[in-house]
Write a structure and sequence with these properties.
The complex is a heterodimer of chains A (about 290) and B (about 240).
Chain A: E1 2-11, E2 14-24, E3 29-33, H1 40-47, E4 55-60, H2 71-74, E5 75-78, H3 90-100, H4 106-114, H5 130-142, E6 148-152, H6 160-175, E7 179-184, H7 187-190, E8 196-201, E9 204-210, E10 217-222, H8 225-234, E11 239-243, E12 246-250, H9 254-264, E13 268-274, H10 276-287
Parallel strand pairs in A: 3-7, 3-8, 5-6, 6-7
Antiparallel strand pairs in A: 1-2, 1-4, 8-9, 10-12, 10-13, 11-12
Helix pairs in contact in A: 3-4, 4-5, 8-9
Chain B: H1 2-13, H2 17-42, H3 50-56, H4 64-80, H5 84-90, H6 94-130, H7 140-166, H8 170-191, H9 193-196, H10 200-207, H11 218-242
């Protein structure tokens, strides 16, 4: 379980992470979403003890990373900033981590097999493609068989088949009871697999939602959103303003929303049912809207 | 800590760093000692005399400069290749990483010093024979100088690790160390020997018993170089802990 509490990280005047609070429970895949530069990587770096928070804290199982016993066995991490020595083979990269973390060498072959690098294991990393490096990074993250897995843009450099493979891995890990957090700036890469999403922008929390809570919604677009919103509010209907005159209405079907629009006296220009995935996408785009 | 040192050794073994640098360090010393034997002979100084040995054997320490660079690369190389984050993920207590690197640096320096000493004594003995002298293996000056070479290369390797921990930019650290020893210290030693003798390379020269005026005693040199390595390593360890990786 990961808990981030009022985390702030400043680089000079720039607040890369600004009072961020979020949690990621065990047994679930938490999507950590936001546009590039939103503060996802910085949050991870603070969580993993690579950067010192300016304020607040980021805890794993209630403890700071640096206070963990045998951290490789507790947390697996894939970071964009992590590099490889180009002259070293993939297998040797893993051997070094295993040696320092007191992990038996048998795990290395298991993981090389898992990430599909067995045949390339004894080649130098300098000759690896971006996707192969990403696979090697995943193997390194899982060396210690950790209950907490933190991945920064794991699909980077992978082909569509590889992206689907990563999704299956994440699902399997969460189903094994692990706490999986995956950061991405591309919702589509993770939307199918996440149980919950945390959306951030400019270092601040925009939204934290369980996907299961995103039941089917109805999207209605009207000429006078204010009037529609007033009617919805008067009737106690759960709704969210998406911008562009669009409103997401929960717990009502299209006919009911249409009737509400008639009562509000507005002209409907769009009325459609949305799946949870589509709702999530709409919220994500609304959150990162100014980036488009 | 044993596992960390073993991991550091694995890091070194799995790159080309040692393959190139250690033979180069040995070769430089080897060539320099050979040259010193010939120059001493030409100067008419009896090769087998203590004076002759003092002109020849301290040159064995020449390769320590490359060992210093190896030390820098052991530490700063992790930032150059972006592997520092992985290292600190495995060992978040960064002082332990610095200690392991200093240890492996010392071992590499000691080994390099040993190989260099053997190679240099070997070539010197051969050239002595060719010049009609017998290499004075029974002269304590020989063994004191070789012991000094071992200490010098060991401490210089550790000094390199310390510098590379403090200056994460590998190119800057190497260029800075070379410029310091080759230019700054050289100028200071010549212009202001009273200051110059307190500098690291001069301390190294004292350790290998180079017959220079005004250098410290060999033990004084050891103490001074240990102090430099310890002070810079302490500053480097502090930097590693207080600065984001």
């Amino acid at each position: 379980m990961i808990e981030v509490r009022s985390l702030t990280k400043c680089y000079g005047e720039h607040r890369a992470v600004d009072g961020l609070t979020l949690t990621a429970p065990a047994g679930q895949v938490t999507g950590f979403l936001g546009p590039n530069g939103a503060g996802k990587t910085t949050t991870f770096r603070c969580l993993l003890g690579l950067a010192e928070p300016t304020a607040g804290e980021a805890l794993i199982g209630g403890r700071r990373y640096r206070d963990l016993d045998q951290p490789r066995r507790q947390v697996g991490a894939l970071l964009e900033s992590t590099g490889f020595h180009p002259a070293r083979t993939g297998r040797n990269h893993l051997r070094i981590i295993a040696r320092a973390a007191c992990i038996g060498p048998a795990r290395i072959d298991t993981l090389l097999e898992l990430v599909g690098l067995r045949s390339a294991a004894d080649r130098r990393v300098g000759g690896y493609s971006l996707g192969m490096r990403q696979r090697l990074g995943l193997a390194a993250a899982m060396l210690g068989d950790p209950p907490v897995v933190v991945l920064d843009e794991p699909a980077n450099g992978l082909d569509p088949e590889g992206v689907a493979w990563v999704r299956r891995l994440l699902r399997a890990w969460a189903d094994q009871g692990r706490c999986v957090v995956v950061a991405s700036h591309v919702l589509a890469e993770v939307a199918q697999v996440v149980d919950r999403v945390v959306i951030i922008r400019d270092g601040q929390l925009i939204e934290e939602t369980e996907l299961a809570a995103l039941a089917d919604a109805v999207i209605v677009r009207v000429d006078r959103p204010d009037a529609m919103v007033k009617t919805l509010r008067d009737d106690g209907v759960d709704h969210q303003i998406l911008g562009d005159g669009a409103i997401s209405v929960a717990g009502r079907d299209t006919a009911e929303v249409g009737a509400l629009a008639v009562r509000a006296g507005v002209t409907v220009t769009e009325l459609a049912r949305r799946s949870p995935g589509e709702t999530l996408e709409a919220r994500f785009l609304a959150a990162v809207g100014s980036e488009r | 800590m044993r596992d960390l040192v073993a991991a550091e050794w694995l890091k070194l073994r799995t790159t080309h760093l040692l393959h190139g640098m250690i033979p180069a360090a040995v070769a430089i010393s080897f060539a320099a000692v050979a040259g010193a034997v010939l120059a001493t002979d030409r100067a008419g100084i009896p090769l087998a005399s203590t004076r002759g040995i003092r002109r020849v054997l301290p040159i064995t320490g020449t390769g320590a400069l490359l060992v210093l660079i190896v030390g820098i690369l052991i530490a700063a190389g992790e930032y150059r290749h972006g592997t520092a984050a992985d290292t600190f993920l495995t060992t978040p207590r960064r002082r332990q990483v610095v200690t392991a690197k200093l240890t492996i640096g010392a071992l590499v320096g000691l080994a390099a010093g040993g190989i260099t000493s053997l190679a240099c004594v070997g070539i010197a003995a051969l050239l002595y024979k060719a010049k009609g002298s017998v290499f004075p293996f029974d002269d304590s000056e020989v063994w004191l100088t070789l012991a000094g070479t071992l200490i010098y290369t060991t401490l210089f390797a550790m000094l390199g690790v310390a510098v590379g921990t403090l200056v994460r930019n590998q190119v800057l650290a190497v260029a800075g160390a070379l410029a310091w020893i080759g230019i700054v210290e050289h100028i200071l030693v010549n212009l202001a020997p009273d200051i110059g003798k307190w500098l690291p390379a001069a301390a190294g020269q004292a350790i290998v018993r180079t017959p220079l005026d005004g250098v410290l005693s060999p033990l004084g040199g050891v103490a001074l170089l240990v102090a430099y390595a310890a002070a810079i390593a302490a500053a480097g360890a502090r930097f590693a802990v207080t600065h984001d990786a």
